[in-house]
Amino acid sequence: MNNPIKTLTKREWSIWLGSIIIVLISNLATKDFDLLTLVAALTGVTSLIFAAKGNVWGQVLMILFSILYGIISFRFRYWGEMLTYLGMTLPMAVWSTITWIKNPSENNGNEVQIQSLSKKHIVALCISGIIVTAVYYYILKSFNTPNIIFSTISIITSFIAASLTMLRSSYYAVWYAVNDVVLIILWVLASLKDPAYIPVVVNFSIFFMNDMYGFMSWKQRELEQAEV
Fold first, then answer.
1. Model pLDDT for residues 150-174, shown as the tens digit of each residue
2. How far is C-alpha 212 from the geometric centre of its chain's CA atoms?
3. SS3 150
4. DSSP state, 7?
5. Residue 228 has pLDDT above 70, yes or no
6. CA R_g for the chain
7. CA-to-CA distance for 19 and 205, rounded, in angstroms?
8. Distant-in-sequence contacts of 205-210, Cβ < 8 A, 24+ apart
9. Across all residues in the chain, what is the average pLDDT?
10. With b meaning 16 or more CB within 10 Å and e meaning fewer, what string describes 55-77?
11. CA-CA distance, 164 to 195, in Å (whole number)?
12. Residue 112 forms beta bridges with which residues?
């Protein structure tokens, strides 16, 4: 549990600070400024930059982000997002934290050891993904969740992303990027009813770019770890 800030490269400092500046501007420029949304966004981008390095602090901050985002989703009655992050992403982030601590990289103890997916992993993900999606869909339907189709898609992408994070796979970031696209659509629809949610759209656009960087970073380290 070292200080992850000390290990940031110049590129990562640029990505992190650039993301923070854009988030600050987009949130402070709106007439309906919401402190909780700003704090959640800053927590989220910081979590992603640390996760891109394979540092366990990325998962610790994801736990905090899940709580904050769950509250934001509750206020707009996006029950799917609230249930997904509080009931699924949060506990899986706790599990990932434990898993990452137990599996440090052999050539750099500050980073997690990346794992290649086996056929058993893929089959288990497919089966559990179908079950989780079906269960959550009926829950969302009973709550009359707005935009239920996109909310359901968000659930399956979040589940796979969180599962791959726990499994220490480089492809976790790809699925989080896919989930970001779904969330952008969801919050654009919410913003049409309440412009106060426009900053949330900007926030997830920044998350998308950070997740794509995370994937590239993990693939590079995966090659480096394979050479050891």
1. 888 988 998 999 999 999 999 999 9
2. 12
3. helix
4. G
5. no
6. 17
7. 10
8. 205/180, 206/19, 206/22, 206/23, 206/41, 206/45, 207/44, 207/45, 207/48, 207/176, 207/180, 207/183, 208/177, 208/180, 208/181, 208/184, 209/15, 209/19, 210/15, 210/19, 210/45, 210/48, 210/49, 210/52
9. 89
10. bbbbbbbbbbbbebbbebbeebe
11. 34
12. 104
Q: Which stretches within 85-197 are classed as H helix?
A: 90-102, 119-142, 148-166, 172-193
Q: With cut-offs at 50, 70 and 90, classify the pLDDT of residue 203.
A: confident
For 106, other C-beta atoms within 10 Å of its C-beta total 10
Name residue 185's amino acid.
I
Note the pTM of the prediction, 2 decimals.
0.88
Residue type, 228: V
Please enumerate in sequence order all residues whose Cβ is within 8 A of that of 93, keeping only pairs 6 or more positions apart, or say none. 59, 62, 63, 66, 162, 165
What is d(CA 80, CA 89) in angstroms, rounded to the nearest whole number?
Answer: 12
What are 175-180's contacts with CB under 8 Å, separation 24+?
176/207, 176/211, 176/214, 177/208, 177/211, 177/212, 177/215, 179/154, 180/204, 180/205, 180/207, 180/208, 180/211
Residue 56 amino acid letter: V
Taking CA 160 as the corner, what is the angle to CA 149 and CA 88, rounded to the nearest 5 degrees? 80
**Mean pLDDT along residues 6-31:** 90
pLDDT band of residue 58 (cuts 50, 70, 90) is: very high
Determine the Cα–Cα distance for residues 205 and 188; give it in Å rounded to an integer.
Answer: 11
